[in-house]
Specification:
Blueprint lengths: L6 H4 L14 H8 L6 H11 L2 E6 L2 E6 L2 H9 L4 E3 L3 H7 L9 H12 L4 H21 L5 E3 H18 L4 H17 L11 H24 L9 H7 L12 H14 L2 H16 L1 H19 L6 H5 L2 H14 L4 E6 L3 E3 L2 E3 L4 E5 H5 L38 H18 E5 L20 E7 L5
Parallel strand pairs: 2-8
Antiparallel strand pairs: 1-2, 3-5, 4-10, 5-8, 6-7, 9-10
The protein binds protoporphyrin IX containing FE.
Length: 456
């Protein structure tokens, strides 16, 4: 009886409530540990029940919604739908992270962080990322095997750590990357604090990162480390405070630097890896892209770093980036919680229920995108219906780093296809188990046939 679909009687969303208390947690955990990826859990129920269905995970009710009209309402009514992550994620990123902060608190933190993502910092960041990528390319040897996921993660980690806290030392960078990886692995773990659990190891990694950040802050305050131009220093100087934006506490600063380190690494590395896979599998796209990118090179990128202006001269590459983000849907759903009883898609939703906007399903909806399984960058801008592209979310909680992310993807695309010739070793599309973001299990290894000398 527990498992029966009760939608017809009470007009609540259809779905399987599963076992008492556990609900469908076991099925969800099985999907997390499967190479089809955790989204398979959602996809199967979306097919069975339609655009709005209900399930029970970790003792809580979760509703998944894949309609653009509902997405618009939910993502814009922050007073009615607040952001909410699973307990494990919330504990790992910290209570003061803007990812988890409730409405008013979130507004204050976002106001402080927003200024860090100015046009000026985007320009400096593009140059920084380009220089780090070119450095990396000089170490890639013809004839060797390159795992795209690993290489993009290393460069993204370097770029983020330099921009946020000016870490440049190789050992410190590696430590940070390893700790962030451990933390990432714990994100979808059952929140049990026993020493051998993934969750516990993630918490330990968080503690070590917090210690590094605390030490850095203390050194700067005591004058041991000076003259840094990075996000951390801007938050410590807090010029915004003079304009009436409240000063962030040290805990808020630490939680949010950590949040940005996490937010800007795996997501971007995964997105770049999928992008290269899609481009590689579509020779027509590759040829059109190459033509455009060789023009950019002719205009000077061979001997100088890329600029935001140069990136703006890449209309086709920009569509490739957008299409890769749509098709890969690295962040698969956007989690919210209903702050009051309401009606969505004609169904009663109770206060306290988790509402997940199913971005992946929206990105693959044939009524919004023609032949959604086809990688077709030219579908844009014609297929830009409102709320049909949610790779970075929308509204007051949309991704703060989206311009940075798009710029990194363009820089990577340009340098990779103009400097390297490669042959794919493993084109398998299986998904990495236990990954929070959609990630290729193989990491996408390629055999480098040749790399050009880079002269900038
Ligand atoms: C391809 C790469 C990226 C993707 C796909 C991505 C996607 C997203 C998504 C879907 C959200 C949540 C939106 C919501 O729940 O409504 C988000 C939030 C966020 N992202 Fe990104 N992101 C990427 C890269 C970055 C980068 C490079 C940064 C820079 C540090 C960044 C910083 C953030 C922050 C700070 C938030 C929280 C915003 C808030 O809650 O106000 N992201 N991102």
């Amino acid at each position: 009886l527990w498992c029966r679909n009760k939608s017809s009687v009470s007009n609540i969303p259809p779905g399987n409530q599963g076992l008492p208390f556990l609900g469908e947690t076991l099925q969800f955990m099985a999907a997390i540990n499967n190479t089809k990826g955790v989204y398979e859990f959602v996809r199967a129920r979306r097919l069975q029940y339609g655009k709005c269905f209900k399930t029970k995970l970790f003792g809580e009710t979760h509703v998944f919604i894949s309609s653009t009209d509902s997405a618009k309402v939910i993502l814009n009514k922050e007073g009615k739908f607040s952001k909410k992550y699973m307990k494990s994620i919330a504990e790992l990123v910290g209570r003061d992270s803007l990812l988890c902060a409730a409405h008013q608190h979130h507004k204050l933190i976002r106001a402080s962080l927003f200024s860090l993502f100015s046009t000026h910092s985007l320009s400096s960041f593009v140059q920084l990322f380009d220089s780090l990528l070119l450095q990396a390319i000089t170490t890639w040897k013809s004839g060797s095997v390159l795992v795209i996921q690993d290489e993009t993660l290393k460069v993204a980690c370097k770029a983020m750590c330099k921009m946020l806290i000016s870490i440049e030392n190789g050992y410190e960078l590696e430590t940070m990357q390893n700790e962030v990886a451990r933390l990432g692995e714990a994100m979808l773990a059952i929140p049990v604090r026993l020493p051998w659990t993934r969750f516990y190891k993630g918490l330990q990694a968080r503690k070590r990162i917090m210690d590094i950040l605390e030490k850095t802050i203390n050194e700067r305050r005591s004058g041991i480390a000076t003259s840094h131009v990075d996000f951390l220093q801007q938050l410590l100087d807090n010029k915004l405070h003079e304009d009436g934006v409240p000063r962030l506490t040290d805990t808020e600063i630490k939680d949010n630097i950590l949040t940005m380190i996490i937010a800007g690494q795996d997501t971007i590395a995964n997105a770049m890896t999928w992008m290269i896979k899609f481009v590689d599998e579509n020779p027509l796209v590759f040829n059109t892209l190459m033509k455009e990118q060789l023009e950019i090179e002719k205009n000077g990128s061979r001997n100088s770093y890329l600029t935001v202006e140069a990136l703006n001269e890449m209309p086709y590459a920009s569509k490739v980036v957008k299409e890769a983000l749509r098709k890969a849907s690295v962040v698969q759903w956007l989690p919210r919680v209903a702050l009051e009883d309401c009606v969505i898609e004609g169904y009663k939703i109770k206060k306290g229920w988790n509402i997940n906007i199913d971005a992946r399903s929206i990105h693959h909806d044939p009524t919004l995108h023609n032949d959604p399984s086809v990688f077709n960058p030219s579908r844009f801008p014609a297929e830009s219906k409102p709320y049909s592209f949610l790779a970075f979310g929308m509204g007051g909680r949309a991704c703060l780093g989206k311009n940075m992310a798009k710029a990194m993807m363009l820089v990577f695309l340009h340098r990779f296809i103009t400097n390297c010739k490669w042959k794919v070793i493993d084109s398998d599309s299986s998904i990495q188990k236990r990954a929070l973001f959609t990630k290729l299990k193989s990491g996408y290894p390629v055999h480098l046939i040749s790399t050009r000398d880079v002269t900038t």
